[in-house]
Amino acid sequence: MKANGPIPPFFESTRDGQLCIGGKAAGDWMGEGDAPMFAYARPVIEEKIAQFRADMPERLRLHYAVKANPYRPLLDFMASRVDGFDLASRGELSRVEGIDLPLSMAGPGKSDADLHAAILAGVTIHLESEGEADRALAVAEQVGMTPKLAVRVNPPFALKGAGMKMGGLSSQFGVDAERVPALVTSLIERGADWQGYHLYAGSQSLSADAIVESQRESLKLVVEITNATGEMPSEVNLGGGFGIPYFPGDEPLDTKVVGEALENEFNTLSDDFAKTRLMLELGRWLVGEAGVYLTRVIDRNVSHGRTYLVTDGGLQHMLAASGNFGQLLRRNYPVANATRFAAEATEEASVVGRLCTPLDLLADEIMLPKTEVGDVIAIFCAGAYGLTASPNGFLSQPMAGEALTD
Ligand SMILES: *Cc1c(COP(=O)(O)O)cnc(C)c1O
What we know:
This protein is about 25% helix and about 25% strand. By secondary structure, the chain is α/β, with parallel strands linked by helices. It has two domains: about 150 residues, Lyase, Ornithine Decarboxylase, Chain A, domain 1; about 210 residues, Alanine racemase (TIM Barrel, Alpha-Beta Barrel). Helix 6 packs across helix 7 and helix 7 packs parallel to helix 8. The chain starts with 11 loop residues before the first strand and ends with a strand.
């Protein structure tokens, strides 16, 4: 037997013992046929946003990183609750069409067409290099507009203990800190509407201390660069990195500790920064725990004493649960039998998808209630980096459905 990940504490059972999502039994969200689906529970997102607002300094703005989950009904809901969206591509810009919020766009390899679309839409471009700065200014000149530009700083430190470190190393993300003052001076000289700085040191950290340290280092670096340029930034985006518990033993991030430390840091900033907009950009922490991937058991196959529950889903929808989305070591996501959510776990089984690869393993040797063909399996923590972070085209299986639930 292997350990199951911790089921997020937001979900209950229906009266007949099924997993309840948005007032309905999980299986009732699935239509006819063999297409799995993602249910995103809006009240969970609401709770996370309320926690952020309660624990973080009042001054701190909250941006949503669209790439975590770009499902349009979810974006429309987020738009009513957050202070801005961070985009990672021109495709994401088209997904947010008609939404009236401050937008920024980060990410390496922005093409001239990307820059053109962003400038026309009034998006703040987080410049990843000097070359991108030159091209953004050239594109802006062609269309006769003043571009809103910020500089992504490749910080000389990384977020410790993060699932994915970005910073402290050579990287394709951002401009090395020592070259930033010269770039900022030149952007202003060349007539850009320079906005400020963007720092992003890593993702999926559950350590408040590590996040506090990286935020402190980030602010210190911004002050140093500001001293070097003599130019006050209108905006400083401190990144994010807030993680959620996925695996056995993971504990939730203590956002109170982060908020108190950040408030102290803000209080040490000089009055010159009084008008600077300070923000975090979060994806996973806001929406990850709200999502449940639901897939039906099509077959049971017993081989050499091990039971395989073969479902109509797989890693083509939920790559991360298979352990193939950046994890060093495969561990089980939180998984349950949604049809028998309240039942005791009595059998050991592995949950697999229907791709022709042993990598398509959604849960490895976990304890579940005795599971029958037709039961629905729930994979939790599927609200971020789920469907759009998976190789949907592989084997041409049916696409998963999606719903934002009450
Ligand atoms: C992916 C990304 C985010 C969001 O990260 P989460 O771990 O989902 O919070 C924020 N900012 C940048 C620059 C990113 O690339």
